[in-house]
Amino acid sequence: YHDDTCVSGRTVIVHLFDWKWTDIAAECERFLGPKGFCGVQVSPPNEHLVITSPHRPWYERYQPVSYKLESRSGTRGQFADMVKRCNAAQVRIYVDAVINHMSASGHGVGTGGSAYNTMNMSYAGVPYSALDFNYNCEINNYNDINQVRNCKLVGLQDLALSKRYVREKIADYLNDLISLGVAGFRVDACKHMWPGDIEAIYSLLQPLNITWFGPGTKPFVFNEVIDKGGGVISASEYTHLGRVTEFRFCDEVGKAFRRQFMLKNLRTIGEAWAMLPSDKALVFVDNHDNQRGHGGGGSTILTFHNPREYKMAVAFMLAHPYGFTRIMSSHVWNISHGQQDWMGPPSYDNDTTKTVTLDNEGQCLDGWVCEHRWPAIASMVKFRNVADGQPLENWFDNGFDQIAFSRGRNAFIAINNEVVGDLHRELPTGMATGSYCDVISGELVNGECTGQAVHVDQDGVALITISSLSNPPIPMTEEKPKK
Ligand code: QV4
Ligand code: CA
Known about the structure:
The protein is an alpha/beta fold and 483 residues long. It has eight helices and 21 strands. The chain has helices at 21-32, 76-88, 145-150, 164-180, 195-202, 247-257, 307-319, 375-387, and strands at residues 12-16, 39-42, 92-97, 107-109, 115-117, 122-123, 184-187, 220-223, 243-245, 281-283, 324-329, 392-397, 402-407, 411-416, 423-428, 434-438, 444-445, 448-449, 453-456, 461-466, 476-481. Strands 1-2-3-7-8-9-10-11 form an eight-stranded parallel β-barrel, surrounded by five helices. Strands 12-13-14-21-16-19 form a six-stranded antiparallel sheet, with helices on one face. A three-stranded antiparallel sheet has the order 4-5-6, with no helix packed on it. It starts with 11 loop residues before the first strand and ends with a strand. The structure holds ligand QV4 and calcium ion. Calcium ion is lined by residues 100, 149-150, 158, 192-193.
């Protein structure tokens, strides 16, 4: 479950949070494929609750009603079409799999028309009955392992994953997705499931669809476990089951770019900071929870609300060799109203999700943030692809908040996060002699750099200039020789 199943040469996934399947299919073809993205993490595709108080929050999708592929993002037919079109565009689909629990309250029908009654633990669309759930207890002590794994997370009916029947129903759901051509899974709430139960479920999975993957290919799995150290459940209990989310990375990168400690310290971020081994970690600057104060959130997490620091933090993550990287692509909520951490995706009056529309610069409109389309972030995806497998070399720091490094001889980045203090220095870049385009301030068009050009001399040294006054200061990268 560790092999990333990306098309070779691609290394980065983006979470298109709450996007409709039809929009994701189009985005694979018009942007993600051409820009070199490996894949998309999609929101849970299975049938879920419709919550009306508050009105249609994003988190209703974390309250399953059945495993029918009928959700707020679209129908089964639309999902299947998206997977095909994205695979054809060389872009993989990774499904957010909610398998620890069902809904927390209510009765009626879900987004796919299946009847459910939370109190009776009856979910006709699967079907599950009260026999398929754990004891009726709440998690209120995170130091009690049995409680965390066998009781209800915020009231969500907790599935008895020790039962063969329940394991088979979940495996049927995941195998259905595999047969449609998905490449793997982000598995929700793993801390709340016994590693042995998860293993038993994964052992029932079929290899990936041979239309797009080699025979016997296993799904790529990244397991969600929030472990910042000191808890009774550690992320390393899950590393044999695929990659595991590394939440310490969000905190440390957030602190560094908020200038709570100096950037020069970031050189060794990773194992040396008690984080997971690099080949076991899934890293990100923010996710759909912690960007709005849920799951492990806090004032250190950087989001699109701080675009200047956020771009630098994401660029740093994509340039640094540690972990497998995921970019967040958000929808807006009103930050001045703290209660709106529940706000769902941009919607029309009839509650259907708005189509993602673009302005003439290719940036998103209508409440879709599309961090992945910000030029500085999109170009760094290409940087990570060309840097893949190359060591971090040619480190420079000025003792404070200016840093630079190369990835072998393939790519070079410099970042200036000083409040006052321009970077203007000759630095070793590791790159071959020649003229290069900075891929953050512009790109190579018809043989010319639309942004800054950088000249590397015969010793591999280049004069690098980044003003701290530029808004946002432009992190400097070089990638391709200018023809
Ligand atoms: C309320 C009370 C509870 C009470 C319950 C009783 O707050 O104290 O027990 O009623 O019925 C929503 C509400 C929450 C409400 C709950 C049930 O926010 O207040 O409980 O619904 O009605 C997402 C959201 C949650 C949301 C949940 C279900 O973040 O706010 O709960 O979906 O809709 C831990 C876990 C980690 C988890 C993280 C958020 O270890 O696994 O919390 N992260 C994942 C997902 C996350 C999702 C879930 C898990 C659950 O990334 O998005 O929670 O599937 O750290
Ligand atoms: Ca559980």
